[in-house]
From TrEMBL:
GO terms for molecular function: beta-glucosidase activity. This is Beta-glucosidase BglX. Residues 640-709 form the Fibronectin type III-like domain. Its EC number is 3.2.1.21. Keywords: Carbohydrate metabolism, Glycosidase, Hydrolase. Belongs to the glycosyl hydrolase 3 family. It holds the Pfam family Glyco_hydro_3_C. NCBIfam families: PRK15098.1 (NF011678). It is an enzyme of class 3 (hydrolase). The lineage of its organism: Bacteria, Bacillati, Bacillota, Bacilli, Bacillales. PROSITE patterns: GLYCOSYL_HYDROL_F3 (PS00775).
Amino acid sequence: MDIQQLQGLVKQMTLEEKIAQLLQLTAHFHEGTDNEGQVTGPMEEMGITESMVTASGSVLGLSGAQAIIDVQNSYLSKSRLGIPLLFMADVVHGFKTIFPIPLAIGCSWDTELAEKSAEIAARESAVSGIHVTFAPMVDLVRDPRWGRVMETTGEDPYLNSLFARAFVRGYQGDNLKEDPDRLAACVKHFAAYGAPDGGRDYNTVNMSERNLREYYLPAYKAALDEGCEMVMTSFNTVDGIPATGNEKLMRGILRDEWGFDGVLISDWASIREMVAHGAAEDDCEAAYRAIRAGVDIEMMTPCYVQHLPELIESGRVDEALIDEAVLRILRLKEKLGLFENPLRAADPEREREVIFCAEHRNVSYELAAKSSVLLKNNGLLPLQTDANVALIGPFTQSDDILGWWSCVGAKEDAVQLGKSLKERLSGGKLSIAEGSGIDSITQQQIEAAMETARNADIIVLALGEDSAMSGEGGSRTNIRLPEAQLELVKQLKTLGKPLAAVIFNGRPLDLNGIFEEADAVLEAWFPGSEGGAAVADILIGHVNPSARLTMSFPQSVGQVPVYYNHFNTGRPLDPQKTEERYVSKYIDSPNDPLLPFGFGLSYTNFEYSDLTISSQEMKARDKLTVQVKVTNTGDRAGVETVQLYIRDIAGEVVRPMRELKGFEKLALASGESGTATFTLTEEQLRYHHSDLSFSSDPGTFQVFVGPNSRDTLEQSFKLI
């Protein structure tokens, strides 16, 4: 259908049919599902009639080709105008084949592989009947207490923007209609959901518009520039107004300023939650504020269907707003080809062939191997294949390594560390003991662990959070490993044997109690379906780790939020004068994080030298070339992620101490040197001024190049 035909379809719809298109319900409201006939109570509670369900526009959370075929066919058999349903789901980092959590994917610094993971997730989802994924989540994050940091790619707006684009390309491809194995992407959560007060989920966000535009909006904009079809509103307030009813944010910035004309959907019940926020007196006012803000689809509350008719009848809401929303929804259905083929790629037979196939699992393995960050190594790793190793800890044989948002991934399909490591220590010995639970420990467990460790030469600890300790609703004030696991470490340390720790988790942790005790620490995150195999291959050196952190690890939770691109103060701490009191510092902790943004070790060593820039002065139309020599001084091949940062020494508003502006991966053999080359333009020096204009300031800029945001070589130039 062309736009005129879609507009004609809107004209044929009754007001009730149009408003029902704006309603999204979970699958069990619809005929053809296993729960059919069991929803009378929920329907009555929500004030939803059978006719509303019959005309509703989209379904949340159903998957499986046959189930979706059944629901779609049943729905269309009763649809007066034959408008098909949209099926949506949270396919965050894989469908059945689960990839590492997005925070781990960010640590790969590999946007091509990230794109490939989204393409595979789309293929598995589409053949199972899904049309839209609620991904990517591109919220910038600086507070690891917030459990949903696991869903993002980190604390840097530039890197987040690159990954946002990559995920959208992977999910959507070039043409949704011609490529039914793709999904429409929905970027979330608009906006600034990643900055809740206290790191507490759903909590207030309070920041200036300049800060919002400088750090939090770029990744959403990048996703939309890549063609992302949908946007989801966030739960939080923005400048005192819940995002779902925030006209300035949704109409002013998203639609008018950025020109977004795709579908805007609320997060679960967030329209009704305006009442709890204190921004609406009742459901009627919540519906009024949301439709005025431009929200097209209401997820799982009945404010629209119950109150838009009376709002239109009273003249408070123009029916044209409803028509606009319906047209946007119909346009998305047309882009997906649903009017011609309402079943799209759903195919039970092909579904069995495609999902969780060997090809997809191989990519999951590769991404897990490239996402695990070596945080410390005093020469203990890699293990020799003939080593006598004790593997101890609650994650030795755990299948809880998929993470909170693992869609239809099954824990029993996850490759476990213990089994994988045993297979790889072909000439050695591996003994396994649980040692403790996630947050419990018994004397019997300690004794068994100690006995296992005494008979080994090396101890490898498998520690971490269970998946429910992060993710949505998983905020924590204590981000250390649970006390039971720290007690296990303490007991094993008394044996005086070399100790390596592997940590499975969904956030940067306060590593006190393990980092100083272990000879080596490997951050595995929740690594996905093939995680055990990938981690085992890193431990024995079949894979040389190359990942780099995209969130800083704090010295302690008391530093939080701690992030690399912070401002200086009027009384900065001089590292040579740490005893000085009246400067910006803690009296009981360093200012710097334990591990900075961009940090990660390898089994080889890299030396940086000969940093050069093409000119000491730069005009607006000029381009500066920055080059650095990198030499692999170790005894094995490795990949180094060379990172370029700048600092604007003096701006109209203060500028960060460092800002990431580029990176390049160099694969170097032992003894080999390579050159990383970067191009800097005036556009990369721009920022939002106090009047929100976006421009650069003449003056001095520093250029930093190195393996992370802390350890760098330095040059400078002037913008004239």
